[in-house]
Amino acid sequence: MLQGVERRRRRSDSIELALHHWLCKAAKRADLFAIVLADANGGLVGGSLRGAEAKKLAAIAPLIARREREGALPGMSVEETQKVPVVVEKIPVGDVPHFLCAVGGAGANDDALLDASVGVHRILSA
């Protein structure tokens, strides 16, 4: 490998922008509609989406994680809940729990979120 050759095309010193670039790339690789990173309270930390859609998805990520653990979202049957094409993985960022949430496409699986989490940890630990 050549020393000093930058292989990434888009990079930023801004954590928010770096997360956006990384999660856009991870979503594209996995053929997903979107990936967002939410804090434990459902606050948006970063994502491939921006604006209201991203905030809404982040807000429900902890609920979806609970659905995956308990089998249903509050007020919905298990059958209704399973129609939602979303996968959420709880990941620690430092000592604080966060949620990576993947939406849409056949790539919405644990492997896609594991791939995304590698870059999230790298960006947030910088």
Molecular structure report:
- By secondary structure, the chain is of the alpha+beta class.
- Helices cover 44% and strands 21% of the residues.
- It has a single domain (15-124), classed as 2-Layer Sandwich (Beta-Lactamase).
Give me the CATH architecture, please: 2-Layer Sandwich
Low-confidence region ranges: none
- What is the average per-residue confidence, as pLDDT, rounded to a whole number? 81
Largest sheet: 4 strands, antiparallel
Q: What is the N-to-C succession of helices and strands? A: HEEHHEEH
- Tally of helical segments: 4
CATH topology: Beta-Lactamase
Q: What is the helix content?
A: 40-55%
> How many beta-strand elements?
4
- CATH homologous superfamily caption: Dynein light chain 2a, cytoplasmic
Total discrete domains: 1
Give the CA-CA distance, first to last residue.
23 Å
Look at the structure and give the CATH class: Alpha Beta
The neighbouring-strand order within the major sheet is 2-1-4-3
- Helix/strand class: alpha+beta
Shape: globular
Strand content: 15-25%
Report Rg. 15 Å
